[in-house]
Amino acid sequence: MSRVALVTGGNRGIGLAVARRLAADGMKVAVTYRSDPPSDLFAVQCDVRDPESVHHAVNEVEQTLGGIDVLVANSGITRDRAFAVMSEPDFAAVMDTNLMGAYRVTRAVVREMMRKREGRIVFVSSVAGLTGSVGQANYASSKAGMIGLARSLALELSPYGVTVNTVAPGWVDTDMTVRLPEKVKEGITSQVPLGRQGSAEEIAEVVGFLASEGSSYVTGAVLPVDGGLSLGA
Ligand code: NDP
Questions:
Q1: Residue 177 to residues 35, 48, 160, Cα–Cα distance (Å)
Q2: pLDDT tens for each residue of 31-59
Q3: 160 assigned to active site
C-alpha cells in the first residue's frame, strides 16, 4: 500500500521539489496551494492561516487518497524589516503563517497518525531559527518556534510511533530569495562554506529521507541543510 503524504505549500519552490521527490518514492502525494496549483500533482486549496481551510483541505485529502501518513509543513513567508521599524502586523503575519500554520496542519492530521500508531511529520524551518538573522526577527522567531514545537511533539508522539523532525534549510534558490538585490545575494553566498546557493531538490532529498521508512529511529532531530552556513565560519 502506498503511503499518503501531504505537503503544504507544495505548489512551488521547496515544497514542490519535496512533493515530486515523495511521489518518485512511490507515495500518493497531495499538495496545498492558494491560487496556483501544479498540473502534475493532486492539489487542494488551503490557506494555513485559516483553521477552517486547513480542516477542509485535510478532509479532502483523506477522502480522496486515504489517511495521511506523512505531513511536510513547508508553507512559509518572509516580511523582512529592521526590528525598530517592524510593525506588529508584519510580525504577526509571519508568526501566523509559519508557526501557527505548522501548528494547524499538524493538529489536523495528528489524531489519525496516533490512531494508526505510525506517521512522519517533517517541519521546514530555517537556519535563521538557529542562528538569528538581521532584518528577520519575525521570521527567525517563527522558525525557532517551529523547532520547539517539533521537539515537543517528538516527545509526545514517540509512544504512538509518530516521528517529528525538522530541516533547517540555509540559502536556497526559490521565489523567496530570487528578488533580493544582487549585492545581498553575493554577500550571503560568500558566507556559505560550500560557496553556493542550494537547490530546492537538495532540500527535498533530506526531507525525503526523514519521510521515509528508513528514518524510523530518528525523531526530534534538527537537520541543517545549508552548505555549512550555520557553522558561522
Ligand atoms: P516560496 O516563496 O517559493 O514558497 C512558499 C510556499 O508557501 C508557497 O507554496 C506558498 O503558496 C506557501 N504559502 C505561503 N503562505 C501560505 C499560506 N498562508 N497558506 C498556505 N500556503 C502558503 O518559498 P520556498 O520554497 O523557498 O520556501 C518553502 C519553505 O522553506 C518556507 O517555509 C521557507 O521559510 C523555508 N525556507 C526557505 C529558504 C530559502 O532560502 N528559500 C531558506 C530556509 C527556509 P502560494 O503559492 O499560495 O503563495
A1: 20, 21, 38
A2: 999 999 999 999 999 999 999 999 999 99
A3: no
